[in-house]
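During the reporting period the student researcher (J.K.) took over the structure-prediction task from the postdoctoral fellow and processed the backlog of single-chain submissions. One of the processed entries is reproduced below for the supervisory committee.
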Amino acid sequence: MDASNGSSSAAAPRSRPLSIRTKPRAPAADTDKWTADDSTAEEPVSPTARLMEPVYIVVTIGLGSPLDLPVFTAHMTSGLPRYSRFQSIQVTEDGKPRWARVKVKVEDHIVVPTLDPVAVAANPDQSVEDYVASLFTLPMDRSRPLWEFHFLDFPSSEATSTAVIRVHHSLGDGMSLMTLLMSSASSAADPTRLPAMPKQPERTGAIYAPQRPRFSGIMPFLAWVCSYFVLAWNTMVDVAAFTIPAIAGYFKLCAFIATIMFLRDPHTLFKRSDDTVFNPPRRFVHRSLSLDDVKFIKNAINCTVNDVLVGVTSAALSRYYFRKSGKCNSDKILLRSVLPVNLRSTPSLQTNVNMIESGKSDDVAWGNQLGYIILPFHLAMHDDPLAYIRKAKKTLDRKKSSLEVVFTCKMSELFLKMFGVKAGAFIFRRMFANTTISFTSMIGPAEQTNWCGHPVVFIAPSVYGVPQALIMHYQSYGSTIKVILSVDKEIFPDYSQLLDDFADSFRCIKDAASKI
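J.K. obtained the following structure tokens:
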């Protein structure tokens, strides 16, 4: 649901448990089970996918029409062969997990629940929010590929009906899932073609690769050479900052004390005091912002869209923190976030979709192609709202000149190979437990689309399965951008106020940019 009205009543947890009644599912049929006769063992499960064991992706999609189940099922049945992971389960051979292809019946992966009609009539937005929150309590059938489509066929404030996709993160990252969704979509203006995607970024290689000099001469050449020294230095600093909190606890080194004292985020109202709760109960809420206004701020300050989003986030978290804590506005707090980064050399969603349409789906970099950056957020109250954007730009520019993202990916793979799954999972857990926030952004279609025969109103992805109390996502679609919060409801009982802080901070920054 979009809590755009900012009302606390719409976002408060219900006083009684949500009543969900679904039609009983038949047990997994023999055609869904892996056997040597009807499936083929494929490549091994990647190290990154093995580390994603507790993590699930949840995507809420608002639809502009009532559910037409036969049409949706037909579209999905024809589109499934494009992505082998949606037809695969994990099997263990000689102690090593591998992907194995199985026969899939789309109907076995569709859920149309029957909710309490009184609750739905009284507050349909709350019913949608309650149902999405309940998914984390419902186990998935591991004899089938780990994906589901849930449909709530009643109108809410934003949509005529709602689809909720739940996918185990081992099947793929956000880019993989978005590629699959867009390959099953069409332009609303012209259903005969794929949705138009935003212009491909200038980057055609890794984000950390120093740019070759555009001009001839000794000075541009020296600047280009120096950029490699900056890259090496920044990498050493970032690797040291990442390595100590990640591995010290596992090996019980003396540095563990330093980790606790200096390199673990301070306990604030954004963080649980007990790190043993790895998968707390969550709420998934979102708010729409104007993408045109984001681009206006970007152009006014000469920065990137991500600079604007990080700056808005810093401003919103600062506003929430100082109001809730009652601390002096002159205080400055440093929190760290885990920022997943797409490691694909060609990050264009359009390129991937075009490969699928041309019959080259095997050439798409499916799966989890992720590295991680530890991104600091500086909480402070600035008189000039644009100071948040300038600070964000400086921080992100610095992070782009580092190999940290590659190191985090390779280190996880190395530890998994050398010490096994438990050691790798421990490193993965420490990375999240020692930080406060998860933060990511995704690019979506640049125009209105139809997905499996249904017009799409909004797209709101999120995740659960990590210990942080606050997970933030930004997702663009058409002329809007969604800020999506996955919140620990015990730490953020007033999460509607946090959404208000995002909207208010964004408005203040936009107003300040209009005066430049």
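The committee noted the following: The chain has 15 helices and 18 strands.
J.K. will present the remaining backlog at the next meeting.
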